[in-house]
Specification:
Strand 9 and strand 10 form a beta hairpin. The strands form three sheets. The protein has a 17-stranded mixed sheet that branches. Strands 1-2-3-4 form a four-stranded antiparallel sheet. Helices cover 15% and strands 40% of the residues. The protein is globular. By secondary structure, the chain is of the alpha+beta class.
Length: 435
């Protein structure tokens, strides 16, 4: 499922390339410009001169650069000191909540620090009280086991001016085709990119639990579940509940669902997301909290068209989200899954969600709507690294369309190889209950 596309990151000081005149270097440092050290000198000069001229001609540009740099410094400090309040003065209220969620997800993945090692500026456009700013950034993430990771992204920041102060409203990120990543890279709210379930043995996996069917061609899947309550007083963990098409025996997977993150210290976050492998996960604006009933449907709009409609409905609040995407699917399987998402170092610890119940589970198989029993779906049990059952599906109910997945008391594993990744952002809410 959102890597999580996942890179909202943070800053440290990169290297400077010696340019023709030392006075230019002084000016560049003053406005916070960093340029690729591999670029020819004339390219450095041209890019630097353009950015300097823009900042000098419009003080708003310099102010925007300053707030982006400050925001990233604050995010790094907030993660290191476990104090999210540091990030509130450079972000809108909604974006601040996203940043808190991102840092909590990083901590859940074992991150202890994040540092910006390279920043270069692209276009900055100001229109009245709104603006966009493009940057290219390279970040390193350090994990509790001593490993480090590096990720490169193009960031398009959206800013708004409130009471004369620029605040960051959003940050859209894409990884360049030439991006270099080392093991352990973390991409927060881009949910991480999913891959097929890790096969351990017949009907077992290290990252999926639930039901899947592979005995036909699948052009639709639907399921309803109740958002579970993760245990928030124990070790951090993550769980993702979703329906999807593809991924059991293929490398394509279109999926959508909810995610619960137990960040430790009595905190939890909840998200909704969609994802189409190999693209990064996308956050969607449907808020969920434990106990909410959620229905997710994925349907191809005409056999073989490659046009898919994805719908997410919070039946409790009435909030809905619907989008249409183009996606080339093998249509080889349909799934109803509780997953332990994949992070930088492998499968993340599954949270203690107790149980999650699926109802109204159906698929469009060979052009016919069938429930999971009629589809011939088989159960999948999730195992930890010691091959102990972590999450176990029940038998299918007598109505043919319902089942539950129960979390056992076995300890979760960290770093089990392979598996889908889930790191979406989305609407979230803190929780003060659970065990």
């Amino acid at each position: 499922m959102q890597t999580t596309s996942f890179d909202n990151h943070r800053r440290s000081r990169p290297r400077w390339m010696v340019v023709a005149a030392s006075v230019l270097v002084v000016i560049l440092i003053a406005i916070g410009l960093t340029l690729p050290t591999s670029a020819p000198a004339h390219q450095l000069w041209a890019a630097a001169a353009s950015t300097v001229a823009q900042a000098q001609a419009d003080p708003q540009v310099a102010a925007i650069q300053a707030v982006i740099q400050q925001a990233n410094q604050e995010q790094a400090a907030a993660l290191a000191g476990n104090d999210p309040s540091q990030m509130s003065d450079t972000a809108t209220a909604a974006y601040y909540r996203q940043l808190v969620q991102i840092n909590q997800a990083l901590i859940a993945q074992g991150a202890t620090s994040i540092d910006l090692i390279h920043l270069s500026w692209g276009p900055i456009n100001v229109t009245g009280s709104s603006a966009t700013a493009t940057t290219s950034e390279v970040w390193t993430t350090t994990f509790s086991d001593g490993t480090t990771a590096e990720s490169s992204d193009t960031n398009v920041y959206t800013l708004v001016q409130q009471n004369g102060t620029w605040l960051i409203q959003a940050d859209q990120q894409t990884a360049p085709a030439s991006a270099h990543a080392t093991p352990g890279v973390v991409t927060p709210p881009g949910p991480q990119t999913p891959v097929p379930a890790v096969s351990v043995g017949q009907n077992t996996s290290h990252n999926w639990a639930g039901y899947a069917t592979t005995s036909g061609t699948y052009t639709g899947v639907t399921g309803t579940w109740t958002v579970p309550v993760p245990g928030i007083n124990g070790a951090p963990g993550v769980g993702a509940t979703w329906v999807g098409i593809g991924g059991v025996s293929s490398h394509d997977l279109i999926q959508a669902g909810t995610q619960d993150v137990a960040a430790g210290g009595g905190q939890a976050e909840f998200q909704t997301w969609i994802e189409m492998l190999p693209q990064a996960s996308q956050q969607v604006p449907v808020a969920v909290v434990p106990g909410d009933s959620v229905t997710v449907s994925i349907n191809e709009q005409g056999a073989g068209s490659g046009t898919w409609q994805i719908s997410i409905t919070n039946n409790t609040s009435g909030q809905t989200y619907q989008t249409t995407v183009q996606y080339a699917s093998s249509e080889s399987s349909a799934e109803w899954i509780m997953e332990a998402p994949t992070g930088a170092n492998g499968v993340l610890p599954l949270d203690n969600f107790s149980s999650v119940s699926f109802t109204a589970a159906s698929a469009t198989q060979n052009g016919q709507t069938v429930d999971i029993s009629q589809a011939g779906a088989l159960p999948i049990t999730m195992l930890n690294a010691n091959n102990q059952p972590l999450a176990v599906p029940s038998a299918i109910g007598s109505n043919g369309s319902s089942f539950s997945v129960a979390r056992t008391t076995a300890p979760a594993s960290t770093g089990t190889a392979g598996g889908p990744g889930r790191r979406p952002g989305g609407a979230s809410a803190p929780v003060g209950q659970g065990g």
